[in-house]
Amino acid sequence: MLCLRLTPLLVLVLVSLGAAFPQEGTLRKGCSLFKYKQVIFHEMKAVEKMQKEFRSIRRLDRTCNTRLLDRKWTSAHLSVPDRVLLVEAELNFTIAMLQRPARPSFARTRQRPLAFLAQAREDLQGCVVPSHQPSEELRQWLQNLQVAMQTVTQVSRAGGCLEDYAIRHVFEVLGDLNCAARQEKC
Fold first, then answer.
1. What is the pLDDT of residue 6?
2. Is residue 23 part of a domain?
3. Which of 96, 141, 143, 186 could form a disulfide with 179 if both were Cys (CB 3.0 to 4.6 A apart)?
4. Where do the H-state alpha helices sit in 60-110?
5. d(Cα 168, Cα 20) in Å, to the nearest integer?
6. Contact at 8 Å (CB) between 7 and 107?
7. Exposed e or buried b per residue across 54-65, where buried means at least 16 C-beta atoms within 10 angstroms of its C-beta
8. Which Pfam families does its entry note (predicted)?
9. Mean pLDDT of successive 10-residue segments in the chain (186 residues)?
10. How many CB atoms are located within 10 Å of the residue 144 CB?
11. pTM for the full model?
12. How far apart are CA 181 and CA 186, in angstroms?
């Protein structure tokens, strides 16, 4: 009889101990990405409109080589802290590309997606675990992204190629954000 009364107490103690020692697959305390578990329909429509506008004013340059940023893995295969690092890098890259000078019509069309992505980046900053070391595959991709971003400052044509890549891959970034918010298999 005494054993049955102690069981709930023991379970409570074990659960509270688990919360005291965060596991590798969790986000930093105070991190709230709940609103990104399901990307808002209006934001998706704004991104779609932005992509359509971009395609109407600019044709893809077939001499662009953005394969450097393609990856053979998906964010679903990464740990939660790796997903957060990935999304942080993707958001920084995409925002930087969307902030490049543009025609007035595209500048207006990109305002809403840019504001949404900037808010997501701000929300994500509290989630990054400072001591986390990225996996080898993510580390390699982050290095490739850094190299690509450095070429933007050196060659204006490279900036156009990367801008094109960033805009074509916005939905992938949103999917990765959604995956990071779930903290589970995507």
1. 38
2. no
3. 186
4. 80-98, 104-109
5. 42
6. no
7. beeeeeeeeeee
8. IL28A
9. 40 34 49 81 92 80 68 88 93 92 90 95 86 92 88 64 87 89 72
10. 15
11. 0.78
12. 10
Residue 94 to residue 117: CA distance in whole angstroms: 8
Q: Is residue 11 part of a domain?
A: no
**81 burial type by CB count under 10 A (0-12 exposed, 13-18 middle, 19+ buried):** buried
Number of domains in the chain: 1
CATH number, domain of 171, equals 1.20.1250.60
Q: What is the dihedral of CA 82, 84, 86, 87, to 10 degrees?
A: 160
**For residue 134, what is the DSSP state?**
P
168 DSSP 8-state letter? H
User: Closest Cα partner for 89 from 114, 112, 120?
Assistant: 120
- Cβ neighbour number for residue 91 with a 10 Å cutoff: 22
In a domain, 125, yes or no: yes
Interatomic CA distance for residues 166 and 160, integer angstroms: 10
Query: If 0-12 CB within 10 Å is exposed, 13-18 middle and 19+ buried, where does residue 112 land?
Result: middle
